[in-house]
Amino acid sequence: DPYAQLLLEAMKQSGCTVFNDRHFSCENCDGCVSGGFDSATSQIVLCQNNIRHQSHMNRVVTHELIHAFDHCRAHVDWFKNVKHLACSEIRAANLSGDCTLMNEITRFKFGLKGHHQTCVRDRAIRSILAVRKVSKETAEKAVDEVFDACFNDLEPFGRIPHSKTDAKRAYRDFQNRDRYNANL
């Protein structure tokens, strides 16, 4: 998957190499949660009982790798600072493919103008509420306060990858990033 390839390479370049047998765990989970990132162990948990299709698995892996990337590069305070959590959830919803038009159509959510941003905001709030015992108002406030900066933080993709083709382009650009800077 080009999304995962790019994130794994970016983490490696940031000094956080990921080992499949160490950093990924398949488990049965409660409710309708598909996955999670455990910052204490730097491990991505995939909920094998709630993931039914390869495309869903790819999105979950990408979403959780974005959290792992943020943990690696930004030293996120996951438990004490809800704004840090909100920022990573915004980035994960924005960059993982969670809010692509096709995914939104399957959820029976339609809209054109500003729909991507609305989806990212809503999914970030839902994710915060799923992992932290905070009020909806607290989650909404945290998301609103950091939304613009975090929505526009496109690292390591450099763009919002709306499709696998976009993700492949982003990965190619990421691989060639140093080549461009060397010529400056």
UniProtKB/TrEMBL annotation:
Keywords: Hydrolase, Metal-binding, Metalloprotease, Protease. The keyword Nucleotidyltransferase does not apply. Signal peptide: none annotated. InterPro entries: Peptidase_M76_ATP23. Coiled coil: none annotated. One of its GO terms (biological process) is mitochondrial proton-transporting ATP synthase complex assembly. Its EC number is 3.4.24.-. The keyword Protease applies. One of its GO terms (molecular function) is metal ion binding. One of its GO terms (cellular component) is mitochondrion. It comes from the Eukaryota. Belongs to the peptidase M76 family. This is Mitochondrial inner membrane protease ATP23.
